[in-house]
Write a structure and sequence with these properties.
Layout: H1 15-32, E1 35-36, E2 55-56, E3 59-60, E4 64-67, H2 68-76, H3 78-89, H4 92-103, H5 107-122, E5 128-140, E6 151-158, H6 165-180, H7 202-217, E7 226-232, H8 239-253, E8 257-261, H9 265-268, E9 269-271, E10 277-279, E11 289-296, H10 308-319, E12 323-325, H11 328-333, H12 336-343, H13 350-353, H14 357-365, E13 370-372, H15 377-387, H16 389-392, E14 395-399, E15 408-409, H17 412-419, E16 428-432, E17 440-445, E18 448-468, E19 475-492, E20 505-508, E21 510-513
Parallel strand pairs: 4-21, 7-8, 7-11, 11-12
Antiparallel strand pairs: 1-2, 3-17, 5-6, 5-18, 9-10, 10-11, 13-16, 14-15, 14-16, 17-18, 18-19, 19-20
The protein binds adenosine-5'-diphosphate and magnesium ion (MG).
EC number: 6.3.2.3
Pathway: Sulfur metabolism; glutathione biosynthesis; glutathione from L-cysteine and L-glutamate: step 2/2
Keywords: ATP-binding, Glutathione biosynthesis, Ligase, Magnesium, Metal-binding, Nucleotide-binding
Length: 515
């Protein structure tokens, strides 16, 4: 049973109040691009053969309550996390040990590593890397302590395709708009008030990050103008989230960008003899562009790679002199195995990357215990915990995958392990479940309102731009390091997964409370 720490929330609504609120949300969201392309189960292909419809993104009707101290904790340590992951992604010898072990049981990791080695062999021509990161947390209340204070624990750290920076700015704007138009009942004014609603500036801050990368690339090396490319999936429903960054990049930074589908990278880009990446847009082929930054919003999951041609595309980009967001090493640094190695109880590794003791301690506080599932001592302990139906209920088992839908929770773990050959167990990590306090909200999804118990996940964005030492033998210099706004994603407490795009959650913003 989750503990109660919040005031009664959200307020009850009369029919007229609910009607006004929903009309406001439906109109504001479309007018301002808080939208997604509809799922086929909501709008079928027959109803929208041209794929031209857009609908309100799944959103919470009220901004969810969130402890102020936890919010400040999360935003406050983002620059330390940026530095940590920049340092990990620059330390090839350290990563190599982890990755090579993992590659034995995980083909996807093995292929990524192969791409890196191929480029290393030929010589790395771009030593600057851009990270648009997102560190995800949940509020945790220690179930063993009756008067435990809420604190945040990290769910995962994303180093590739960290999504929802576009929609998170929009949803926080919308909740502010709703408050300013009296859409929330006056009885709740002591909780939902301007000073409690936190805006997320992730659109301008992430777009500025892309521009920093673009500027760090320097002058064009060819006679062509410079551009950024967004490498995207073919059927992307979360397209407006990305568009907000593109539009801001042009409007505020004056940087031109193009969307290139992952499977058409080879058709429309080429490398010159110096490995400059050149892009010729099929819609305007008279002008070729030199690519300064490649921003991946695809290529993070095995399902994005349908054979050798797609791996060739990833290699092609990695070989180039464009700044990658992220590089292969940075992508690998974001694997759950790396998170586990840092967060295994008594792990010595954090200090290697964060020399500042205070920063390291603050980061360490946000780790939930994570164990390997290999044959090491910690792994043996984890195997016992995971196979015992009683202790398994405190854990989640995760493979090295991104994008939701892959985890095995609590009492399902022992059964799952019975089906899985033991040789494959090390491809997983075992993580203690984070236990958030009880919270209620309403989610509007596909025109329907669902009210009930919810769980929020805070994502804090970070921008980091750094240079490697030769052959990735360490971090040479950090040029940019800042916190870049936040995301709150909220899901029903009956669904263990949290991906909004996967259909399990909603975008939300924080209504801060002192608890
Ligand atoms: P993915 O790469 O699929 O996003 P995550 O590690 O973020 O993987 O896990 C997916 C979801 O599972 C999270 O959004 C969260 O809702 C839930 N989850 C993951 N780890 C934990 C945990 N330790 N405690 C509670 N819930 C978790
Ligand atoms: Mg996640």
């Amino acid at each position: 049973m989750s503990r109660e720490i919040y005031p009664k929330y959200p307020p009850d609504l009369s029919e007229a109040q609910l009607d006004y609120l929903l009309t406001s949300i439906k109109d504001w969201s479309i007018a301002n691009g808080l939208a997604v392309r509809p799922v086929p189960s909501f709008v079928s292909k027959d109803q929208d053969p041209a794929g031209s419809l857009a609908v309100t993104a799944p959103v919470t009707i009220f901004p969810s309550l969130f402890p102020r101290s936890c919010f400040e904790q999360g935003l406050g340590i983002q620059t330390a996390y940026n530095e940590l992951y920049a340092a990990i992604a620059s330390d090839e010898p350290w990563l190599k040990q982890i990755v090579e072990e993992l590659a034995e049981v995980d083909d996807f990791i093995a292929e990524l590593w192969k791409v890196y080695l191929t480029v290393k062999e030929e010589g790395i021509v771009q030593d600057i890397t851009l990270g648009l990161f997102r560190s995800d947390y949940m509020v945790h209340l220690d179930p063993m302590e009756t008067d435990a204070k809420p604190t945040i624990k990290q769910v995962e750290f994303n180093t590739i395709a960290s999504s929802f920076g576009g929609l998170s700015s929009k949803v926080s704007e919308m909740h502010n708009y709703l408050l300013s138009t009296d859409a929330y009942p006056h009885e709740s004014a002591s909780v939902i008030k301007p000073s409690s609603l936190e805006r997320s500036k992730s659109i301008p801050l992430l777009a500025a990050g892309l521009a920093k990368g673009h500027n760090a690339y320097g002058k064009p090396k060819t006679e062509n103008p410079l551009c950024v490319i967004f490498v995207v999936q073919d059927l992307e429903r979360n397209v407006f989230d990305q568009r907000h960054l593109e539009y801001m990049l042009l409007a505020r930074q004056g940087v031109r960008s193009f969307r290139v589908k992952f499977d058409s990278v080879m058709a429309h880009t080429r490398l010159d003899e110096k490995r400059n990446l050149l892009y010729t847009p099929p819609h305007a082929p008279k002008q070729t562009w030199e690519v300064s930054v490649v921003y991946f919003r695809a290529g993070y999951a095995p399902s994005d790679y349908n054979g050798k041609a797609d791996w060739d595309s990833r290699l092609h980009i990695e070989r180039s002199s464009a700044i990658k967001c992220p590089s292969i090493l940075t992508h690998l640094a974001g694997s759950k195995k790396v998170q586990q190695v840092l967060a295994t109880p008594h792990s010595p590794h954090l200090a290697r990357f964060l020399q500042d003791k205070e920063q390291a301690a603050a980061v360490h506080k946000t780790f939930a215990p994570i164990y390997p599932m290999d044959t090491s001592e910690a792994g043996q302990e984890a195997r016992k915990l995971a196979q015992d139906p009683e202790t398994a209920t405190r854990y989640v088992l995760k493979p090295q995958r991104e994008g939701g839908g892959n985890n095995v929770y609590r009492k399902a773990i022992p059964e799952f392990l019975k089906q899985e050959p033991e040789s494959h167990w090390p491809a997983h990590i075992l993580m203690e479940m984070i236990e958030p306090p009880a919270l209620t909200n309403s989610i509007l999804r596909n025109g329907e309102v669902q009210q009930g118990g919810v769980i929020g996940e805070l994502g804090v964005y970070g921008v980091c731009l750094w240079r490697l030492k030769k052959d990735a033998q360490g971090l040479d210099q950090i040029f940019e390091n800042y916190q870049a706004g936040y995301l709150l994603r909220t899901k029903g407490d009956q669904s263990e997964e949290g991906g909004v795009a996967a259909g399990f959650g909603a975008v939300d913003s924080c209504c801060l409370v002192d608890v």
